[in-house]
Write a structure and sequence with these properties.
Order of helices and strands: EEEEEHEEHHHEEH
Number of strands: 9
Structural class: alpha+beta
Radius of gyration: 30 Å
Helix content: 40-55%
Strand order of the largest sheet: 1-2-3-4-5
Largest sheet: 5 strands, antiparallel
Strand content: 15-25%
Number of helices: 5
Distance between the termini: 90 Å
Oligomer: single chain
Shape: elongated
Length: 170
């Protein structure tokens, strides 16, 4: 079964008329290129898209369609110079508004709620105290090579000892 092109805005397939609506030919929310694919190949699994091989959304013949994973499909379309430039413009605009929102009362409340949620679910990690050598658990993530302390008293004692050593060396 072939797609019958009636005009620039109207195509027929399997006895149904599809009309150009935005970038795709559609009928009652059903897109023509997906209907063509399903007619010839069966249902489209969740997470997959139907791609127009030649990039022409008016060419809905089965030979111009292929099924791709959604992420791969998006990646393919985001590589065009026009899309890359549009993304750059959008990001610049978003950054301006994002900094204002993050500094707002609403932004601070959102970050507070999400931080609390994260720390409640964060896994406990086991470390050895740099000062006393005792093993302890915390949700905090220490970077590799950093000093780790089981208590504020160990941290303070470590710093006092380090200052004493520096004074003795000079």
């Amino acid at each position: 079964m072939q797609v019958n092109v009636i005009s620039n805005t109207k195509q027929e397939f399997n006895g149904e008329m599809f009309y150009l609506c935005g970038a795709y030919f559609q009928r009652k929310g059903k897109r023509l290129h997906r209907a063509v694919w399903e007619y010839h190949n069966g249902s489209i699994p969740k997470g997959f898209d139907i791609h127009h091989i030649d990039g022409d959304r008016h060419n809905n013949s089965i030979s111009n369609l292929c099924m791709m994973q959604g992420k791969e499909h998006q990646r393919k379309h985001m590589k065009s110079p026009e899309r890359v430039e549009q993304s750059r413009r959008d990001i610049k605009k978003a950054l301006k508004y994002a900094s204002a929102w993050h500094g707002s009362v609403e932004g601070a409340a959102w970050h507070g709620a999400h931080a609390k949620e994260y720390w409640e679910k964060a896994p406990l990690r086991e470390y050895v105290c740099t000062f006393c050598g005792k093993s302890f658990q915390t949700r905090h993530v220490y970077v590799e090579g950093a000093n780790r302390f089981c208590h504020q008293n160990c941290r303070a004692s470590f710093r006092r000892n380090r200052i004493k050593e520096e004074l003795n060396e000079s």
